[in-house]
Design a protein that fits this description.
two-stranded antiparallel sheet; 6 helices; about 140 residues; alpha+beta; 2 domains
């Protein structure tokens, strides 16, 4: 399950955990929250208000297309491009990225596309989570 790890009311990490990992994390962090299916996906830095996770208002969700592409490993990109040669859905996902001005990490179509890549085994759920929920660095932010 996808979990937000909370310390002092702040999400300090997001990890995919099995039952044993959940038990271990519960010993290390004040709160471990199951965030599977939450949209938009919480990010590191979000706040836990005692009942739910809320944005701290500082997230930047738009990153450059190049920086989004660089979030994938070379092996992941190779697998995606190879699969695209026979898979029209992947071709459409790549075309959407190619013609967009920036990548919106909260775009439901992008999130669905990444989940589609997971369903095909081209990405692990952990990598998909990392790609979509790692807060953008200053150099990644689209400033267009």
């Amino acid at each position: 399950m996808l979990c937000a790890l909370v310390q002092d009311s702040v999400v300090v990490d997001i990890q995919t955990l099995d039952d044993a990992g959940y038990q271990s994390a519960a010993k290390q962090y004040q709160i471990v929250l199951d965030i599977d299916g939450i949209s938009p996906p919480p990010q590191i830095g979000w706040l836990f208000d005692g009942s739910k996770l809320v944005s701290n208002g500082n997230e930047v969700w738009h990153i450059t297309r190049l920086k989004f592409r660089q979030r994938f490993t070379n092996a992941e990109l190779l697998g995606i491009f190879q699969a695209a040669s026979t898979n029209y859905m992947i071709q459409a996902l790549l075309d959407n990225q190619r013609i967009s001005l920036y990548t919106d990490l909260l775009d439901p179509a992008l999130i669905g596309g990444i989940e589609y890549l997971v369903s095909l085994g081209l990405l692990t759920q952990a990598r998909a989570t990392q790609i979509l929920t790692t807060p953008p660095s200053e150099s990644e932010v689209y400033t267009g």
